[in-house]
Design a protein that fits this description.
single chain, 316 residues, alpha/beta, 3-stranded antiparallel β-sheet
Length: 316
């Protein structure tokens, strides 16, 4: 039995959240756009980014934007530096559309938000699975490794990729949309959570996961939010369960920070992201890492998000 190494790190540094100027894609990167699915008359597109004249087989990173399942675009300026970095590290990037199940929803009451949120998440997961199938179907043409497909997302996108891996792990009905035996090679979430009916339970080991999350996040729970008989479990709770199951993970807990961690790491923590892919995905190291990052000048007391907080911060 392989030895599981538990590393607990305490890091203290200034975590900047200022916004860069508009991102851009390097001149050595090709971008192509494809329609990967049609749902209810809506054409869902993806942008494929890859180094020009690159023919070797590459790992593929599928990215989902954030926006509370109400808005957002796949080619937002905040994401381009992230795509460009990944492509120049030798990965093919697919930035995808997905249906926005809460679009147009305003001031929901408590009875409406529960089914609406669950429906929005599962719609997005279904679209991610469609995009995954599209990538698998074109794996040969695009020179991507079907055994190295990594999913990553910000906020609502992070919720979607974590939920997608959870459904695969449980082999739930919706996961049957993927080919039998398919497994994601890794999951990277920037301020995400998992929606569960009853207690969240994993079936064996999950794909290696990388989490970035502020422990004072009032938009997506860092810990757990109870919604009637549902649970909305954030990065802290997911990591605890992965540890118990012996699944590799790396959690960057940013003390005193809120939902800015849904975007900041894509600008300021690119080396940590590359290190995760190298160690956990490519070299399959059996590591469990929990890094607590102290933000200078901020006090931290891990917050308990309420349903009222969630509605206020997601339906402004």
């Amino acid at each position: 039995m392989r030895r599981i190494l538990l590393i607990t790190l305490l890091v203290s540094f200034v975590f900047s959240v200022s916004v860069h100027a508009n991102g851009e894609i390097s001149g050595n990167v090709d971008k192509e756009t494809f329609v990967y699915s049609n749902r209810g008359g809506v054409s869902l597109q993806l942008d494929k980014y890859r180094l020009k004249k690159s023919e070797e087989k590459q790992a593929c990173v599928i990215f989902l934007f954030g926006g509370s399942f109400r808005g957002g675009v796949r080619d937002g300026d905040d994401f381009l530096k992230y795509y460009d970095f990944l492509v120049n590290q030798g990965y093919t990037v697919l930035a995808i559309d997905y249906r926005l199940g809460l679009k147009g929803m305003r001031d929901p009451d408590l009875e409406k938000i529960i089914p609406a949120l669950g429906n929005a998440i599962y719609m997005a997961v279904e679209d991610l699975y469609d995009a995954t199938n599209y990538a698998l179907q074109h794996a040969s043409d695009w020179s991507i490794d079907p055994e190295k497909i990594i999913i990553t997302g910000s906020s609502a996108g992070a919720i979607t990729v974590l939920q997608a891996e959870y459904e695969c792990n449980r082999q739930s009905a919706i996961s049957k949309k993927l080919p039998a035996g398919f497994k994601y090679a890794g999951v990277i979430g920037f301020a995400g959570a998992i929606f569960s009916q009853g207690e969240m339970k994993w079936t064996g080991k999950a794909a290696p996961m990388l989490f970035f999350h502020g422990d004072m996040d009032a938009t997506v729970p860092f810990s757990k939010l109870g919604i009637a008989d549902m649970q909305f479990c954030g990065s802290q709770v997911i990591a605890e369960q992965l540890k118990a199951a012996g699944s590799p993970y790396c959690l960057y807990q940013v003390s005193g920070s809120k939902h800015e961690i849904s975007s900041g790491p894509m600008k300021y923590n690119l080396p940590e992201i590359q290190r995760f892919i190298s160690l956990f995905v490519e070299n399959k190291q059996p590591l469990m890492i929990h890094s607590v990052i102290d933000t200078i000048g901020k006090q931290s007391d891990v917050t308990s998000l309420t349903l009222e907080d969630f509605i206020k911060n997601n339906f402004k």
